[in-house]
Amino acid sequence: MTEVLGAKTTTQELADRATAVLRGLGAQLPEPGALPARTPITGGQLLTLRPSSLDDVDAAIGRAATAFHAWRSVPAPVRAAVVRRLAQLLTAHKSDLAELVTLEAGKIPAEAAGEVQEMIDICEFAIGLSRQLYGQTMPSERPGHRLMETWHPLGVVGVISAFNFPVAVWAWNTAIALICGDTVVWKPSETTPLTAVACHALLRRAASEAGADPEVHQLIQGGSDVGSRLVEDERVALVSATGSVRMGRLVAPRVAERLGRCLLELGGNNGAIVTPSADLELAARAIVFAAAGTAGQRCTTLRRLIAHRDVVDPLVDRLERAYRQLRVGNPLDDGVLVGPLIDGKAYTGMRAALAKAVTDGGELVCGGERVEGFGDDAYYVRPAIVRMPAQTAVVREETFAPILYVLAYDDFDRAITLHNDVPQGLSSAVFTTDQREAERFLAADGSDCGIANVNIGTSGAEIGGAFGGEKQTGGGRESGSDSWKAYMRRATNTINYSTELPLAQGIKFG
Q: Which residues form the Aldehyde dehydrogenase domain (predicted)?
């Protein structure tokens, strides 16, 4: 059976530690109120916060809009000083901020530290970007004319982030938005408010120490009413929202109604194909982390494994052995690889999905049980593997929990069809040593996802490449590459340096 490590940590001990970390980061302790800051480690309450009122939201947007008027005129390489100082503060306080991520999101320390490192990495990327916000110069058809594009700051950017990456996704958006000359209003998940308090304090400190206006960043806290107010405000030029497809369906039309811009990062029901030529040892290691890491609570979690009939049995055997060795328990304990689900709703959703899969003819290979001993309000589960006879409705839905559905295929074309036959399109992978299969998977008629990998899992994206997906995943791109263009507006400029006034397309007028 899976080894379970259950530390006897009390909620009060965790609350004391969270308070100490906040103070160490220079954050002002939140005013007590109706918004609970809960830890999934014990299911208990760390602190409470006063949620933002709708008037608070309006005021925060107003401060960000006012700050934008001056911030947009600061040269981008000078704006980089704020992000550079933020990177330095994140580096100095990496372990403390990572601990807060563990306390609020339940991530094991290695994953929490990796998330903070991602923040540092995106800051470094954005600093370099500050000297590379390039526009193009195009040849004009008119003599004595020059045609070019320039990029300008967009305005106030509203960032709505999810609990599973409570700090990294905020940093992806904020570091680039600030470099681009935008100001930011952040609405974090109500599930992880303390990490937001910490990040907000570090950024405002970075701005002050870099000689910039701290009002370039605003923090609002609360539930859907707070998010709705942010989404509907015409002063918010771009809403970058990370969350469920359901959330995206609410956000997108509201922003569109006022003709604002949206950047959506929504659900992922990610698949991996394992071919007969695959290195099964390499594939198994990648699959276990992608499927069970963060207790299956990543948007890039591997949820569908499509293996060739010749290798599916030995591959599932390897995975089952690995799953039974995974240590499930308090993420603060040494050796634990799988921490808790975020809450009881996630556990209920997992159990319902497993029951539906079995009803549909699925065979539960292992996992799915709740691990007891951590309190009634803490939800630890063993990652599950289910062999499915077909890609049924439950397989085509994203359940935000550690369930890996296994499907068999006979023909590579059929494998690609199965892979693409879901509404989501975030991350994907193929395991093969056949170059033709690898290239086909990456071709236009291969994976239809925003991320397509070869011989590596679906999770663990680097910040250098643009992150995002297609179909119901939303179509947005954050982080690397040219994603900065989403945070700026483009102007096409024509300069006449001649003494004549020729018209385009050879038109003669008068």
A: 35-490
Token look-up 């003819």 returns: 361
Nearest-angstrom CA–CA distance, 389 and 361: 7
> How far apart, in whole angstroms, are the C-alpha atoms of residue 458 and residue 439?
17
How far is residue 46's CA from residue 318's CA, in Å, rounded to a whole number? Answer: 40
Among candidates 464, 436, 403, which has minimal Cα distance to 122?
A: 464
**Residues 41/340, Cβ–Cβ less than 8 Å:** yes
Task: Look up residue 474 and give its DSSP letter.
Answer: -
pLDDT digits (tens, 9 = 90+) for 271-293: 999 999 999 999 999 999 999 99
Predicted model pTM: 0.95
| Backbone dihedral region for residue 2 (phi beyond 0: left; psi -120 to 50: alpha; all else: beta) | beta
194-217: per-residue pLDDT in tens? 999 999 999 999 999 999 999 999
Write out the catalytic residue numbers.
265, 299
d(CA 169, CA 186): 11
The answer to whether 187 and 159 have CB atoms below 8 angstroms apart is yes
